[in-house]
Amino acid sequence: MLAKVQSAACAGIKAYSVEVEADVSFGLPDWRVVGLPDVSIKEAKERVRTAIKNSGYDFPGDKITINLAPADVKKEGSSFDLPIALGILAANGTISQDSLDSYTFLGELALDGSLRPFKGALVIANGFQPGRAFILPEQNARESSLAKNARIYAAKNLNDVVAFLQKEKNLPVLSSSFSFEAPSADSSAYADFSDVRGQHYAKRALEIAVSGHHNVLFIGSPGAGKTMLAKRVPGILPALTMDEAIEVTKIYSVAGFTQNSGALISHRPFRAPHYSLSSAALVGGGSSPRPGEVSLAHKGVLFLDEFPEFRRDALESLRSPIEDKEITISRSKIQITYPSEFLLIAAMNPCPCGFLRDRKKQCRCSLSQIHKYQSKISGPILDRIDLHVEVSPVTYQTLSGEGNSGETSAVIRNRVMDMRKLQHDRYRHLPYKLNALLQPREIKKFAPLHEEGKKLLEMAMKELHLSARAYFKILKVARTIADMAGEEQISCEHLAEAIQYRSFDRQW
After folding, report:
1. 126 in Cβ contact with 31 (< 8 Å)
2. What is the mean pLDDT of residues 224-249?
3. Phi, psi of 424, deg, nearest 5
């Protein structure tokens, strides 16, 4: 007898339907799973067999064939346990085919028949037409209910599902029509900028960076405050919109980080990976491509401390996600794209010992050591960073003085929100809404220069040997500085400040 059960799977943050076909026929006891299953699905045979028996149902002693369609797409994960078990029970006559047709089933089975959560529940629930009904483990129910107009039935075990299909028991149902409150911008969830003593130049650069979404590189001695500044950036970013929060939660769902909480991710991510991570961990990958740190930092901050210590191949792999705001991972049979629109904040020492140009401690590095250390960061990567900011050590008087506290994160965030609203209004007819995302064809229209400004920029191009990319980045930063000054026209003053943030170009 043949039975068909509807299920689903993820490809990145997109979902697609999978039909589980189960056939039980006379013959020697055998069980085969076809349709490009991975190892976790092949192992489902023992989980499903034991779960069915321990749930009190008869397991057929005949030939069993399971097909996962479409057969030309590789399937992975343990979420097919439940539909496979239901397909066998339907083919064996325990439940009717008609009872299965109205639902999509997913879930991992424990040996006692209880249901365990799986990765990507929100992506699947949000990836189909509104009104589709899903029967899922109760641990995935809250997360899946964030999907618009999806009907989510929460089940604890296989017995609950079978009893529901036989109309002997009701399952809790969660329906969502987006009645959730929008995430709030609560700066108290982050360290506050008022804790930072001095460093007015660096804080000014960070406000420019956050206002226009420009990438930043901090260069300074150990203990100057680079990490302290970076950790406070999420507190001055505007709150996530509901659509942004759903998109971020999808990525974390695929990565398996929402299985326990199941809640909407309402704060902008702050990712600070260690420099020992691999290229695949940074940008995503693996035999079954998973999101990397650049995608987990989507709509938030990616902080790379000890920037030159990262592996060269890992740093070079940042080129595409920084520029394109997405990363495409290609394998022989699949191509997956993850979003990666993050604010990059990198930090480094100026030399191996860290005290080059320090006013109190003498640098012990030779010129060749300094050059070798700084050369670990390639020109193409530096070109993609808008602001190169030197962070000087803070004096004792600044640290110990009373009343030296700066502005709070809430005050800075209000200015940032005003700047972003201005940009959204200006670019309301464009797909991108921030200065850093302007395309070269739009620069002349939105960042025009008068003759004096053109001459100043021409001189900078010649003296600093700037690339075409650096040219456009200077204009974008100058546009943000002019916006912060409340001026429509970019002046020489705004342009000069933008040029001074290319300190590495001056050194090299």
Report:
1. no
2. 93
3. -60, -40
Rounded distance between C-alpha atoms, residue 413 and residue 421, angstroms: 12
Q: Which CATH architecture has domain 2-175?
A: 2-Layer Sandwich (3.30)
Confidence of residue 477 (pLDDT cuts 50, 70, 90): very high
The number of beta carbons lying within 10 Å of the beta carbon of residue 5 is 27
Q: Is 229 exposed, middle or buried (0-12, 13-18, 19+ CB in 10 A)?
A: buried
Alpha carbons 339 and 245: distance in angstroms, whole number: 13
Tokens representing residue 130 in the block: 């509104």
pLDDT of 177 reads 43
Instruction: Provide the b/e sequence for 257-276 (b: ≥16 CB within 10 Å).
Output: ebbeebebbbbbbbbebeee
Express each pLDDT in 437-452 by its tens digit: 999 889 989 999 999 9
CA distances from 252 to 245, 256, 460 (A): 11, 6, 43
For the four alpha carbons of 310, 313, 314 and 317, in that order, the dihedral sign comes to positive
Task: Tell me the C-alpha distance between 125 and 143, whole Å.
Answer: 9
Total H helices, total E strands in the chain = 23, 19
For residue 336, give the H/E element and its range: strand 335-339
Residue 413 · residue 238 · CB < 8 Å: yes
Query: What confidence score (pLDDT) does residue 176 get?
Result: 60
pTM of the model: 0.90
**CA-to-CA distance for 235 and 233, rounded, in angstroms?**
5
Query: Cis peptide before 137, with omega less than 30 degrees from 0?
Result: no
Where residue 261 falls (left for φ over 0; alpha for ψ -120 to 50; beta otherwise) is: alpha
User: How confident is the model at residue 179, as a pLDDT?
Assistant: 45
C-alpha pair distances (Å), 324 with each of 70, 213, 339, 384, 439: 31, 14, 9, 11, 11
Domain ranges of the chain: 2-175, 187-410, 438-508
Task: Using the CB atoms, write b or e for 397-431: b if 16+ within 10 Å.
Answer: eeeeeeeeebbbbbebbbebbebbeebeeebeeee
Q: Which element (helix H / strand E) includes 153?
A: strand 151-155
- For 446, half-sphere exposure in the C-beta direction (CA atoms, 13 angstrom radius) is 29
Please tell me the CATH superfamily of domain 187-410, with its number: P-loop containing nucleotide triphosphate hydrolases (3.40.50.300)
Tell me what pLDDT residue 444 has. 87
Quote the pLDDT of residue 508: 46
Q: Identify the CATH number of the domain defined by range 438-508.
A: 1.10.8
| Helices (H), ranges, 303-376 | 312-316, 319-324, 367-374
Digit-coded pLDDT (tens) for 255-313? 988 866 667 888 899 999 999 999 999 999 887 789 999 999 999 999 999 999 999 99
